[in-house]
Amino acid sequence: MSRKLFGTDGIRGQANSAPMTADIALRVGMAAGSLFTKGAHRHRVVIGKDTRLSGYVVESALVAGFTSVGMDVFQLGPTPTPAVAMLTRSLRADLGVMISASHNPYQDNGIKIFGPDGYKLSDDDEKHIEEQVLGEMNANLAAPDKMGRAKRLDGVFDRYIEYAKRTLDRNIRLDGLKVVVDCAHGAAYRVAPQSLWELGADVVALGIEPNGFNINKDCGSTAPDALCRKVRAAGADIGIALDGDADRVLIADENGELIDGDQLLAVIAENWARGGRLAGGGVVATVMSNLGLERFLGGLGLSLPRTPVGDRYVVERMRAEGYNLGGEQSGHIVMSDYTTTGDGLVTALQILSVVIASGKPVSEVCKRFMPVPQVLKSIRTNGSRPLENSAVQDCIEKNRLRLGNGGRLLIRPSGTEPVIRVMAEGDDETLVNSVVGDIIEAIQSATAH
Questions:
Q1: Helix count (H) and strand count (E) of the chain?
Q2: Any bridge partners for residue 251, and if so which?
C-alpha cells in the first residue's frame, strides 16, 4: 500500500489541512493506542510538543484519541523530542508522541511516535496505524469504565536537564566558557540555557520567547546567521543552534564560522575511537554526508556506511550492525550510548567536553577535514513526477558520467514536501555547479510541460 500519512519522519503537513487536522490526529491516537494496548496493566502514553500555535489543537485531539481507547495520557507541554523519547522509557510508557514539524515554520506541524523502547516506530507499525486511521475505528473504543485519564506531568524540565548533564563525566564543568545558545523559540527554550548555566557556563540565550508564530523564524539551526553574529559581538567561545524540537544542532566557532553535522560526527568519532568507546568500527551517516568526512574517517581506519536520508534510517542501521554513533549533515546526531534519537543539547555537550579536554579553541577542535565541494539545490514539483521523464533521466546519467568515480550525485524527492533535491560533490567545484545546474534545468523543463 502507498503511504498516505507517514513520511520519513512521522506525519507532517500544514496545520488544519490534511493530514494535520484534528480529525486525523484523533484517529491516529485511537489507532496507535489500540495497537499498543496489550496486557492487563494500565496503558500510558506521554505526549510532548514544541511551541507552535497548532500544538493545542493536535494535542487535544491526540488526548481524546488515546483516552477513548483506554490509554492514560501524560502531557509534558513544550518538550524537546529527545526528552519525549527518554521519558517514554523512564516512565515505562507504552508509547511516546512528539507534536512537532521540527525545523519547519509555524504553519506546519507533525506527529512523531516512539515505541516503548524510545525508538521511532517501524515501517510495519506505521503502516498498521495508517490502515486503521483510514478505516473503520469504532470497534476500538473502550467501554465506559475502561476509558483513560489525562494529566499534566510536573518536573519534566528538571528530569531532562539532569539526564542531559549526566551524559558528561562528573568532573567536566563549563566554567569560564561564554556560550551563545539559540533555541529557535522552540521546545528547548528553557532547558538548554538552564542546562548550560548549571554546568557553569556564561550563557547568552537567543530564541527563548516563543509566541506560537516565531518558531524557527530567522533563528535556530536552519537560520544561524543571528547566532554567528551574536558569537562575534559577545566575544563568545562557542555558539549552539538548535532547531524547533531540539533534535538537531549546529555549532559556531569563536569566529562565528558555522560547523555542520559532518564535522561534529568527525570530532566525536575521533574522540571516541581514541578512547576505545566507538562501537562498530565506524560511523553511520546518510547519502548526504560529505565525501570529505568519508575520507577523514578512512584515514583513521574507520568506515562510513551510508543510509537514505532520515535519522530513523541511521538509527535502524546502527541498531542492526552495532554502531553507537551516527547522524546527518543537518546536525541530527545519534549517540546510542545516551539516546534513541537525535539530541541537539547532548551533542553540544559532547562537543564541549572535547573542547575543554583539548584546551584549544573551537575553530581548531571542530574543523577536522576540508569538505569536498558540495552543491545542493531544491526544486518544487507541484505534484508532477519529472524523474520519470526520459529527458531528465538522460540528463542525470550524462552528468553522472561527467562526475566520474571521484564524485557523487544524488537526486531524491523529499519525504516531507513536494520537492526534489539535487546534490553533487567532487573535487572540481566548477564541474559540480555545472552538473547541478544542468539537472535542475532539465527538471524545470519537464515540470513546466
A1: 14, 19
A2: 240, 259
d(CA 133, CA 95): 17
Counting every residue written for the chain, the total comes to 449
- Distance CA(390)–CA(412), nearest Å, equals 16
* Kind and range of the H or E run holding 316: helix 311-321
Torsion of CA 231, 232, 238, 239, to 10 degrees: 30
Query: Mind listing the domains of the chain with CATH numbers?
Result: 6-154 (3.40.120.10), 159-256 (3.40.120.10), 259-343 (3.40.120.10), 374-448 (3.30.310.50)
- Provide the b/e sequence for 353-375 (b: ≥16 CB within 10 Å): bbbbeeeeebeebbebbebbbbb
User: Using CB atoms within 10 A of its CB, is residue 41 exposed (0-12), middle (13-18) or buried (19+)?
Assistant: exposed
For residue 268, what are the CA distances in angstroms to 152, 250, 258, 363, 413?
A: 37, 14, 17, 15, 30
**Could you tell me the three cell numbers for 404?**
566520474
The whole-number pLDDT of residue 416 equals 66
Question: Coil, helix or strand for 197?
Answer: helix
C-beta neighbour count of 339 within 10 angstroms: 21
Rounded average pLDDT over 137-166: 94
List of E strands, 103-142: 108-114
231's CB contacts (< 8 A; 6+ apart) are 180, 238, 239, 252, 253, 254, 255, 256
Contact 34, 64 (CB under 8 A): no
For the chain, the first-to-last Cα distance in angstroms comes to 29
Going by DSSP bridges, is the β-strand pair 44-49/72-78 parallel, antiparallel, or unpaired?
A: parallel
Which three three-digit cell numbers place residue 282? 565506524
- Catalytic residues, by residue number, are 102
**Is the bond preceding 224 in cis, omega lying within 30 degrees of 0?**
no
Coil, strand or helix at 3: coil
Q: What is the mean pLDDT of residues 208-217?
A: 98
d(CA 10, CA 23): 17
Asked whether 318 and 307 are in contact (CB, 8 A), the reply is no
Give the pLDDT confidence score for residue 202 in this predicted structure: 98
pTM, to two decimals: 0.91
Per-residue pLDDT of 46-59, as tens digits, reads 999 999 999 999 99
Longest dimension (CA), the chain: 69
